[in-house]
Amino acid sequence: MGRRRGIMSQRFKEELAKELGFYDVVQREGWGAIRAKDAGNMVKLAIEKAERQLAEKMK
């Protein structure tokens, strides 16, 4: 079975990594080099942003 396609765009992932402070690791070593904790924090932040955006649309 092939790899699943990512849901987040590359640009959005980079934005999140910059905001969380580990984008330098991504630039040097790629996405595979980030810690599991950082990946989890990135997903958490993406969910928070999506929830805020949805709440704004509902107003």
List the helices and strands and how they pair.
Blueprint: H1 10-20, H2 23-29, H3 36-58
Summarize the structure.
The protein is mainly alpha-helical and 59 residues long.
Q: Can you walk through the features of this model?
A:
- This protein is mainly α.
- It is built from three helices and no strands.
- Helix 1 crosses helix 3 (36-58).
- The protein starts with 9 loop residues before the first helix and ends with a helix.
Distance between the termini: 42 Å
Order of H and E elements: HHH
What general outline do the C-alpha atoms trace? Answer: elongated
Number of strands: 0
| Largest β sheet strand count, sense and barrel closure | none
Structural class: mainly alpha
**Averaging pLDDT over every residue, what do you get?**
91
Q: How would you name the oligomeric state of the polypeptide chains in this document?
A: single chain
Low-confidence stretches: none
Strand content: under 5%
Number of helices: 3
Computed over alpha carbons, the radius of gyration is: 13 Å
Q: What helical percentage do the residues reach?
A: 55-70%
Keywords, separated by commas or semicolons:
59 residues; single chain; mainly alpha
